[in-house]
Amino acid sequence: MIACFDIGGSAIRGAVARAVSDIRPVGSVPTPVHDFDAFAEAVAELLARCGIAPGAPMALSITGVVDPASETIKVANIPGLDGRRLGPDLATRLGRPVLVANDADCFALAEAVAGAGAGRRIVFGAILGTGVGGGLVVDGRLVRGAGGFAGEWGHGPILATRVGTPPADLPRLPCGCGQAGCVDTLGGARGLERLHRHLHGDSRTSREITAAWIAGASDAARTIDVWTDLVADPLALVVNVVGADIVPVGGGLATVRPLVERLDAAVRARILRDTDAAIVVPAACRYEPGLLGAAILALRETGDARAA
Fold first, then answer.
1. Confidence of residue 304 (pLDDT cuts 50, 70, 90)
2. Which of 11, 219, 297, 303 has the highest local Cβ count within 10 Å?
3. CATH fold for the domain made of 118-282
């Protein structure tokens, strides 16, 4: 048995994993965001509920980016952890190996092993949630780039400023990463809301916009048309660059199946590979992907074939 944890800005969720198909939640505790000692105590509290053997490895899925060389983490929403060597620091405190991975990477790994990408060689997991993120898995193994950055298609000054039919002129909005014109600024749920507000002066939520689009509202249809053009171009480039067999999509916007289907059609129209089979598909993991991805990492650390 191993312990796995999903670290969010408001709560830490824990689970015990015996295999990919056998993960049992042990509850959650609030996330102490400003104090590492309090954070370590919160993790220890959940760890005690897991009942795993002393010295057994554990794994964390977290929103931050971990540099694989230095093991330091950059995590904006939990300042008490920012800049720390989180894995080694927790390992010392808890007396066991601690694996730490980005939550989008854990999502991609979960989908590659037990979700829509199972049996596929190259899986690019795309997140269309509050913002835009991603992770890359090749031959069942997570790709961790220099500095911990791989799969981050949401960032970089690449968004078009004139898209849609007829074309709409769009601003290059500043992004939290320091760039301007990133996919993250208009591609996620908050971005869709910004886009709709820019086009129509209407402050609807992303759920209201997609519901109105499905119901046939012309203003929402215009927003979705522009959004699809904006997001399909960079995602198609990702598919061409990494040669992805499939792109499972997670996050709030991915729950709107017609939106994913429309994005898939737009991406397939833009890539080099000619295929009638869907490439961009809704995520298929039935269990929380952050916990599942973390469990896979820890199970593999133990050499457990049930994580293959």
1. low
2. 297
3. Nucleotidyltransferase; domain 5 (3.30.420)
